[in-house]
Hints:
Belongs to the tRNA nucleotidyltransferase/poly(A) polymerase family. Bacterial CCA-adding enzyme type 3 subfamily. This is CCA-adding enzyme. Its EC number is 2.7.7.72. ATP binds at residues 27, 30, 111, 154, 157, 160, 163. The protein is an alpha+beta fold. It has 4 domains: 1-129, Beta Polymerase, domain 2 (2-Layer Sandwich); 139-224, Hydrophobic Seed Protein, CATH 1.10.110; 243-339, Up-down Bundle (Methane Monooxygenase Hydroxylase, Chain G, domain 1), CATH 1.20.58.560; 347-403, Serum Albumin, Chain A, Domain 1, CATH 1.10.246. It contains 19 helices and 11 strands. The strands form 4 sheets. The protein has a 5-stranded mixed β-sheet. A two-stranded antiparallel ribbon has the order 6-7. Helix 7 runs parallel beside helix 9 (192-204), helix 12 packs across helix 14 (276-294) and helix 14 packs across helix 15 (299-321). The radius of gyration is 28 Å and the shape is elongated. It starts with a helix and ends in a 6-residue tail after the last helix. It binds cytidine-5'-triphosphate and magnesium ion. Cytidine-5'-triphosphate (CTP) binds next to helix 7. Cytidine-5'-triphosphate (CTP) binds at residues 26-27, 39, 42, 111-112, 116-117, 154, 156-157, 160.
Amino acid sequence: MKEPFLSAVPVIKRLESAGYEAYFVGGSVRDYLLGNKISDVDIATSATPDEVKAIFPKTVDIGIQHGTVLVLLKNNSYEITTFRTEGEYQDFRRPKEVSFIRNLNEDLMRRDFTMNAIAMDANGSIIDPFDGQTAIKERVIRTVGSPEERFREDALRMMRAVRFVSQLSFHIAGETLLALKKDAHLLDKIAVERKRAEFEKLLSGDNRKKAFRILLETQVFEYLPGLKNQELKIEKLLSYLCDSLNKKEMWALLLYCLELNQQDSEAFLRNWRLPVKEMKEIQDILLYAKQRLIKDWSRYDLYTAGSETIQSAEKLYLVLKGINDYDSVKYWLNTYDHLPIKQRSELAVTGSDIMAWREQAGGPWLKELLTRIEHAVLQDEVVNEKEKIKEWLKACSQKSEKNC
Ligand SMILES: Nc1ccn([C@@H]2O[C@H](COP(=O)(O)OP(=O)(O)OP(=O)(O)O)[C@@H](O)[C@H]2O)c(=O)n1
Ligand SMILES: [Mg+2]
């Protein structure tokens, strides 16, 4: 066994010495068996949340109604969930209440896919009652037992299946895929935030285009915000070689394919409940990439976009043009790096300087003039030094140029 499991072994040992069972479960065991990078280590135990809290001095209640307690130990934190069955399901969403049980097998039985229903004890021994290891070897996503039952317990699992296609490059077992087609409509009941978490993992996965094909084939896309009836536009996305794009760039590509105007793009992202900051970043990427389709970057565009957006927008532009060459990203970033200023606060003059020189109170004229100076500095019309700018302004106004 290796990290991060090794550091978590004492957590399991402590639960065991208090008389309970405890195992590693979920994605960490799956990713370990796959030889992939392991994110969070999840632990399942026969101890109830109160019993867990009595054993560890530092805990946080993060999902006590679902039986999950966060244990803080030596700079690490571990989610410990009591073995449970999920009892009565309401409206195809996760149940409000769960029943705690003392039996590992029953806990594994209520999990979504066989590859996710494997437990590992503190010695590294695998407990795999549903043959998840074979599924992992065969790279197949198969529900534990009846797919319809599993999807009716929590319809989000259908999206999880598709995101695992993208992330792990697995395929979906026949019966599981049939149930996905049949039950896709149940996704209507699922909170957008939960759908978004899965969709974003799908957008970032290595096999994202195959996952999009499955969204189309199963009609799952019909139950995702803003994608209803957009089959042809989603198909357009499949024509691009987009593996190099990150999550935000993928959102921007999707917006491009959907051919939405600025206002509708914003509404689309809002409907997915994206944080406002990310919405703005995605829209900027799209804006500059579209501009790039028409012309080269101007120095002023580079300046207003900033390095992160330049990189993303140029990457998206290359994808839209089908150009497989990263040199232009480097070229424009390098041009950006050599700009004389990166933001207005770096201008050698301030609004107060100009008001004093002009002996004039502030107003819209001042904002316009500062923008004009920014342009002039960026175009090397004038050096970014106070005296030089003062002279330039004087010469400029003598020539009675506009905005001088
Ligand atoms: N709707 C869900 C969500 C989760 N699980 C179970 O809970 C585990 C942990 O869930 P989560 O951390 O959300 O997903 P992971 O499979 O661990 O994937 P990731 O690596 O992305 O965390 C899953 O492996 C699965 O056994 C489930 O049965 N049904
Ligand atoms: Mg996990």
